[in-house]
């Protein structure tokens, strides 16, 4: 077979082989790829086709073809090394490529027999290199690696012989086309193309299968370690699917909820939430579906219907295409801590109430009255509304105490406190004991007319209690005198000014004969 035709056939064969390797590389279910191999076959295809087009050894097509072909041979040697488990250092790869390019560019300046000799010599090196490595790695038995090593070695000897003839025997090199080695070159070129291609595919498949097996074994070890960690974890661990149903739960989580593990599989996460916490569930579900993780506290129902508090660290799970697959949650039992917190909050709330509450009458005390009056008056700056306060005290209460005793006096104050609390109808209004027998009332957003209605109601209901007061010159029953002040916001007016104004009006009511109301606005 003519050597030029061999070059064309090798170009076509190498190109088709490269296409086959590309198909293997991008196979969806089981992609297989070996570094340098596709590049090796593409370079060999391009180099063989350029040599087919070349008209002489010094032709530019020949020079470029030799560079591509030798680079392809080098890359194929690297492929063999990688398939056999060896790594190629970047600097070795780059240095080899530079040497090939430099030598090939120098060949046009050599005498004709030496040009072919140098190319044959370099080809033999790149066939001996993988064979030497395969011989050193393979055992002395009939294996695919041994067959490949022998094939590379025979091919290397053929090209080495051609190189020796060209470099050492110039006269013989001029007639090399009629030498037996000329017939051997096409045969070994086709043989090594077919044998190396088939065996390298087998080795690549073995390498790929071995990698998959190692990955599967590693995955099994990882799963086993993960399962051990999950089973021995102090926290409860739950995995939900896209419908928020339980697909995995560890033993500790099942124990905390009072279920057997198999009872929890398939249950909806929603079923563990008390009705009053359903807004928490809906909010957290929306966060997971939008890809947001969170840490939150929530109360869950146990199998026996009791509630238990958990600190939940939740993470959304998405597949490779970005589709929501479910959620992973780690549950820490914080029930004891939460109960202590709730108890502390309730205790603090009661303490706050007690600190703002008059111990005798149960209504607000002087501290609460002062704080609310300051708050409501500062609010007038924004609302431009009106604020009314009522100050009143029980007429001749000292005489009542002296005649009926302090126990009766305390009961009288309690009844007046209840009357005052019943006379205010809005949640923003404040009824307070100002001190001793003196009481007060704050009426936000109330004008003077509205405040007088409330004041008159208070006065009449106190009189309507018909608490006997034998020592009162005003009435046979307990009565009260009231001062009503209505104000708007003024920068130069203080809280003390408002209280002083109401106190003066209260004094005027007493001077005028008691059991009556005096009022003013400013």
Kindly name the structural category.
Answer: alpha+beta
CATH fold-level topology of the largest domain: Rhopdopsin 7-helix transmembrane proteins
Mean pLDDT over the full residue set: 82
Amount of beta strand = 5-15%
> How would you sum up the major sheet?
5 strands, antiparallel
Shape: rod-shaped
Radius of gyration, in Å, reads: 50 Å
Counting H and I runs of at least 4 residues, what is the number of helices?
17
Gap between N and C termini: 123 Å
Order of helices and strands: HHHHHHHHEEHHHEEEHHEHHEEHEHE
Low-confidence stretches: none
Write the CATH architecture name of the largest domain. Answer: Up-down Bundle
Strand order, largest beta sheet: 2-1-5-4-3
- What is the count of structural domains? 3
The level of helicity is 55-70%
